[in-house]
Design brief:
about 375 residues, alpha/beta, Rossmann fold, six-stranded mixed beta sheet, two-stranded antiparallel ribbon, about 10% strand
């Protein structure tokens, strides 16, 4: 797979100058740079798992089994997988709606996504929310929120808290090209820059903010140049090259951990589906779709693995079968699960106390059941 020469993070000085199967290792076992065939196949496993989980969710959506919206990362999987593998166990990541792959790498199981999207009792949100709106600091990731740009100041706070608690952690989050024009994005970078916080922000420039092309909201050739306003390191990387993304993110994380952050990294890619499942993306020119279909990140990585003899076609087929078997088993669990109990709507509402607050009584629960 061709490697981009633009994957390096440009350092600026102060003041603005320039549960897996046993064959799968935990995500945090990868070193800063993947070199062995086994490590290279780990990348492929998560790329395929990301794609195949979302394909199954898309089918469930069309069957009327998915509640709420569904947002595909097809064409962008290399960004989530490559960047997540660059993090250490103590680091914290905040995914957005197209970063299911990062959550898989950090340990979320496919069954959790199926339960969540189908709004089942055993889902991470206990059937009260859908999409990727779940997480926990104890699991190493902050739940995404619908308001674009908001996670940048939130992760700045996480980075600051980590420093105050001597956690030696780096906080990483993602943002779309359109959201780099929001106030939260700039306010978060402003705070992180003056405090030199260990924060990495990855711009997923997929060329379209819903139906608005990037050229209609910014004249910059590289959105990473917005870092110049804050005197922080920046970089641009081929977002369809998982190894280049991993390398660039590893450098950014290292800079941030050594107190030279925050870092703004732009990954150039293409959203190969509509904004969500109900969007047919008819506004995208056909020639643009055809160009990027040839640059599918999984197809490019397969070619690289085969050409470099890091893997055989049998290896790739085995991994695909492994992913399919795991998805089938996890989906069966989710399909068999029941919906949330009506009375659970009054659970987790009040914090545990020593007795001063009166809990909802049986009469309240009877009303809930009748409704």
């Amino acid at each position: 797979m061709p490697r981009t020469s633009r994957s390096a993070v440009k350092k600026q000085t102060k003041r603005g100058k320039s549960s897996e199967s046993q064959s799968r290792r935990p995500a945090d076992s990868l070193p800063a740079s993947a070199q062995t065939p086994a490590q290279l196949l780990d990348f492929y496993y998560y790329l395929k798992l990301n794609r195949m989980v979302e394909e199954r969710l898309s089918a469930l959506y069309r069957q009327g089994k998915v509640q709420g919206g569904l947002y595909s990362s097809k064409g962008q999987e290399a960004i989530s997988v490559g960047s997540a593998f660059a993090l250490a166990p103590q680091d914290v990541v905040a995914p957005m709606i197209r970063n299911l792959g990062a959550m898989l790498v950090r340990g979320v199981k496919p069954v959790e996504f199926f339960l969540q999207y189908m709004q089942k009792e055993g889902s991470p949100c206990k059937g009260r929310d859908t999409s990727l709106h779940f997480g926990g600091i104890d699991r190493g990731f902050v739940p995404p929120v619908s308001h674009l740009g908001t996670l940048v100041p939130v992760l700045s706070g996480v980075a600051l808290a980590g420093r105050m608690l001597n956690k030696n952690l780096v906080a990483l989050t993602y943002i779309g090209d359109g959201a780099t024009s929001t106030g939260d994005f700039h306010e978060g970078l402003a705070l992180a820059s003056v405090k030199r916080l260990p924060l990495v922000v990855i711009i997923e420039n997929n060329r379209w903010a819903y139906s608005t092309p990037v050229a209609a909201q910014s004249l910059l050739a590289d959105l990473a140049d917005k870092a110049r306003a804050y005197g922080i390191p920046q970089g641009v990387v081929d977002g369809n090259d998982v190894l280049a993304v991993h390398e660039a993110t590893s450098r950014a994380v290292d800079l941030a951990r050594r107190g030279q952050g925050p870092v703004l990294l732009e990954a150039k890619t293409m959203r190969m589906r509509g904004h969500s499942e109900h969007d047919d993306a008819s506004y995208v020119p056909e020639e643009e779709k055809q160009f990027w279909e040839k640059r599918d990140p999984i197809l490019l990585y397969e070619k690289h693995l085969l050409a470099s003899e890091a893997a055989s076609q049998a290896d790739l087929s085995r991994i695909e079968s492994e992913c399919a078997a795991r998805i089938d088993a996890d989906l069966a669990i989710a399909e068999a699960a029941g919906g949330p109990r009506p009375e659970s709507c009054v659970e987790d509402v009040y914090a545990p106390t020593q007795g001063a607050i009166e809990r909802p009584g049986e009469e309240t629960l009877r009303v809930v059941r009748r409704s």
